[in-house]
Amino acid sequence: MGRPFLVTIPNGAGASDSESWALGANEHIMQVILIQDVNNLGGKNELVTVKSGYARNYLIPQKLAVEASASNQKVREEKLKVQAKKEAKLLAEITEVIARLKDGNLKVGAKVGTTGKIFGSVTSVQISRSIREQKGYEIDRRRIQILSDVKEVGTYKASIDFGNSNVAELEFDVVAE
C-alpha cells in the first residue's frame, strides 16, 4: 500500500457557484429539486441543499430529485404556478359545497321508541347517506365527526373535514322514521 496523497483544487477550477467545499471534510454541497416527498428532507417540488454524494449516489438515481439547473428551476416554477391554480379552484369548490351543506338543515331518519329515544344511535354513515340523498354530494363517512352522542330525536351538529384545514360545521335534525 502506498501513502495517501492530497490533491488541491485551485479556487475556481472546476467548482461552480452553486457548489462549495467544506473545509477539512472535502465534501461538495449542491442544490436539488425534489421530485417526490423525501422523509426528513422535504416535499415535492421543494428546493433543498444536500451533500453532492447523497444527491448523485441516491437522490438522482432513485428519481427522487433532479439537479437545480436553470432550466429545472423554470420547470419547477411552472409546476408551482399550476399547483397554485388547482388549489385555488379546489378551494372555490369546497367553499361552494360548504355553502350548500349549510343551506337548510339535513334530516336524518332513525327508528324511535315511544319515549322518543333512538334504537342505537345515529352514525356518520347515516349522515353521509343523507347528504348524498338530500344535497347531492358524496362525502366519505370518515370525514364526518358527530360532535355529541345522538340518542334521541332533536337537532345536533357534526363537523366535516375537507382537508387543508377546511372544516365545516353542519346541523342535522334527527327525525322518527
Characterise this structure.
The chain is 30% helix and 24% strand. The chain is built from three helices and eight strands, in the order E-E-E-H-E-H-E-H-E-E-E. By secondary structure, the protein is α+β, with helices and mostly antiparallel strands. It has two domains: 1-77, Ribosomal Protein L9, domain 1 (3-Layer(aba) Sandwich), CATH 3.40.5; 101-176, Roll (Ribosomal Protein L9, domain 2), CATH 3.10.430. Residues 12-24 have low confidence and may be disordered. It starts with 19 loop residues before the first strand and ends with a strand. Strands 1, 2, 3 and 4 form a four-stranded antiparallel beta sheet that branches. A four-stranded mixed beta sheet has the order 5-8-7-6. A hairpin with a 5-residue loop joins strand 7 and strand 8.
The whole-number mean of residue pLDDT values reads 82
Instruction: Give me the CATH superfamily of the largest domain.
Output: Ribosomal protein L9, N-terminal domain
Architecture of the largest domain in CATH?
Answer: 3-Layer(aba) Sandwich
> What overall geometry do the principal axes of the alpha carbons give?
elongated
Q: Whole-number radius of gyration?
A: 28 Å
Order of helices and strands: EEEHEHEHEEE
Instruction: Report strand %.
Output: 15-25%
> Helicity, in percent?
25-40%
